[in-house]
Amino acid sequence: MSAALRSWSGEHPMHRHDMIFVSPLAWRSLLEGRSDLGANPLVARWVDRGWPLIGRRAVHGEGQGVPVGLPLPPFAGKHRHSFLVRRQDIVSTCSPPVLKHAVRVAPYAWRPTLNALTDFATRYALEARVFGSLAWAAVTGLDYLTESSDLDLLLPVQRDTDLVGLTAELASIDDAAPMRVDGELIRSDGVATSWREFHSGSRQILVKTMADVTLLDRMLFFNSGSAS
Questions:
Q1: For residues 113 and 151, what is the distance between their CA atoms, to the nearest angstrom?
Q2: Rg (CA), the chain
Q3: Which of 62, 73, 120, 143 is surrounded by the fewest CB atoms within 10 Å?
């Protein structure tokens, strides 16, 4: 992992896309109740290999616990499995991989675009990160990428970030890219919106939190203290 691990005390909020490490004992206990997964050797040894789960949004009525996911690579069926883990079973967390550290596992045809995005992030003083297929390839070394894979970016932005200029430049990079460049603009509190949706100029944009998905006036993305 390219990000420092954070010991989990339950004091800081969990965000979507956080990499979440659970104890091997807790993982084995969790799989005992999942007959659909217990016999899968890749899933069974996942945590023992030192690989994380990923923070996700809770489903209404799902129950108590921290919602996490495990997306398997294409060769393992590309299934997205969901779990609830107990807070006391979380050992540590970290942010998704930094873009520049994920370049090493990217397809060769992606390299010019990734270099352009790295320069772009530097100009805007952003610590650009990746999630999705490229992130999982970087974290596990498994073959997650296919010819149809997108590049998923996570762009932490601040109140003084020029979001109009940023998304316009990102659109230009996307136009010239051999893959689709997707991703989110994310505030420090974890509230996020698609860069494409913001760039579209629509008055109402879809914003996501750990708890909900809702519409927000585009001009209030940073002028409001919350997403509601």
A1: 10
A2: 18
A3: 62
Q: What is the pTM of this model?
A: 0.89
- Residues 6 or more apart in contact with residue 108 via CB below 8 angstroms: none
Strand pairing report for 181-186 and 151-156? parallel
Rounded-to-integer distance, Cα 18 and Cα 123, Å: 25
Instruction: Give, in degrees to the nearest 5, the angle at Cα 93 between 87 and 95.
Output: 140
Which structure tokens are listed for 135? 């992130």
Tokens 């073959």, residue located: 143
- For the annotated catalytic residues, the residue numbers are 150, 152
Q: Which amino acid is at 62?
A: E
CA neighbor of 105 nearest in space, from 67, 149, 139:
139
pLDDT tens per residue, range 69-90: 999 999 999 999 999 999 999 9
Contact assessment for residue 190 and residue 13, using Cβ atoms and an 8 Å cutoff: yes
